[in-house]
Amino acid sequence: MSLASYASDPARSRGRRHPEPPAPTRTEYQRDRDRIVHSTAFRRLVYKTQVFLNHEGDLFRTRMTHSLEVAQLGRSIARPLGLDEDLVEAVALAHDLGHTPFGHAGQDALNDCMGPFGGFEHNLQSLRVVDELEERYPLFDGLNLSFETREGILKHCSRANAQRLEAAEPDGVGRRFLDRTQPALEAQLCNLADEIAYNAHDIDDGVRSGLLAMEQLDAVALFARHRDETLAEHPQLEGRRLLYEAIRRMLSAQVYDVIDATRTALQAAGVDSADAARRQPPLVQFSGPMRDQSAELKQFLLRNLYRHPQVMEMTGQAKQVVRELFAAYAADPAQMPPAFAGKANRERSIADYIAGMTDRFAAREHERLTGRRLLP
């Protein structure tokens, strides 16, 4: 498939931090994707949490399944827009590599622990994983990914961290946070596909868990419309089949909406290159009505799922595990493997070690170090 003029062309990539000869059978972005899939950090995602902790059920989403769903949605949108599907897939598969165990609860706790030492941002940690922490190649640390993939991985970044990145890599991936430009369209697409994916699968997981009832979803216009359409065509449907079909239709509606709204925005902006798109406001977008409905769904999930007492109780325990792990390693770094214990920046090394843990390994380590079991 030919790329649109505004797509990221792998033949014109800004390259890698450590120059390498091109691969004979793969583009630069295909090579990035393959390196990500074979990385240790990617394998760990299968035992890292989205909303429900790893021990709470085998069928709830993990960071791995979420990343795969983002990649699938991203490719489905990229293709009709003429964007580079391989770059979209690479960014989607890598965007959560820096996430801690126990989902956002773990991230919040680790950020609190690291407050006096520069804080913790999972997007920045994902970049740190692919730039420094993976150890697979003889001549450099990290995966040595292309600029465009690294740019897409760094979805958010504080100004202070952007300044530090810019000092270490002038005109690099931190620059856009200082001059307020956008990432490539493929990265913008991954950001939106991420939102579409987690809104949909959190409905599924919420109902599966019993924390959400189908009747509660009457209050969500985006879901209720597609459930009603489903029942009009298949009045006999109920239970999980009805839920799955309503979610499937909801996902399709959002995908088609993004394609149409983005085409309109691209035509209005008149961009004819990837760099020209970077100088515009975000161009990969929902239509106004769909943006409002998506925001309503997010607020519903925040009130009824993410802040559900049962979820809050479990995430409170998860935060305690992370805080106590950090304190234990700070008091005795020798409890970590030598590769982490021997580093000069003790606190950052502790954060790297904890962030790389899976849910179940973190729980076991906490029990080993404290003699207490907070999580099953």
TrEMBL record:
<dbReference type="InterPro" id="IPR023023">
    <property type="entry name" value="dNTPase_2"/>
</dbReference>
<dbReference type="GO" id="GO:0006203">
    <property type="term" value="P:dGTP catabolic process"/>
</dbReference>
<dbReference type="GO" id="GO:0008832">
    <property type="term" value="F:dGTPase activity"/>
</dbReference>
<dbReference type="InterPro" id="IPR026875">
    <property type="entry name" value="PHydrolase_assoc_dom"/>
</dbReference>
<dbReference type="InterPro" id="IPR003607">
    <property type="entry name" value="HD/PDEase_dom"/>
</dbReference>
<dbReference type="Pfam" id="PF01966">
    <property type="entry name" value="HD"/>
</dbReference>
<dbReference type="InterPro" id="IPR006261">
    <property type="entry name" value="dGTPase"/>
</dbReference>
<comment type="similarity">
    <text>Belongs to the dGTPase family. Type 2 subfamily.</text>
</comment>
<protein>
    <recommendedName>
        <fullName>Deoxyguanosinetriphosphate triphosphohydrolase-like protein</fullName>
    </recommendedName>
</protein>
<feature type="domain" description="HD">
    <location>
        <begin position="63"/>
        <end position="199"/>
    </location>
</feature>
<dbReference type="Pfam" id="PF13286">
    <property type="entry name" value="HD_assoc"/>
</dbReference>
<feature type="region of interest" description="Disordered">
    <location>
        <begin position="1"/>
        <end position="33"/>
    </location>
</feature>
<dbReference type="InterPro" id="IPR006674">
    <property type="entry name" value="HD_domain"/>
</dbReference>
<keyword id="KW-0378">Hydrolase</keyword>
<dbReference type="InterPro" id="IPR050135">
    <property type="entry name" value="dGTPase-like"/>
</dbReference>
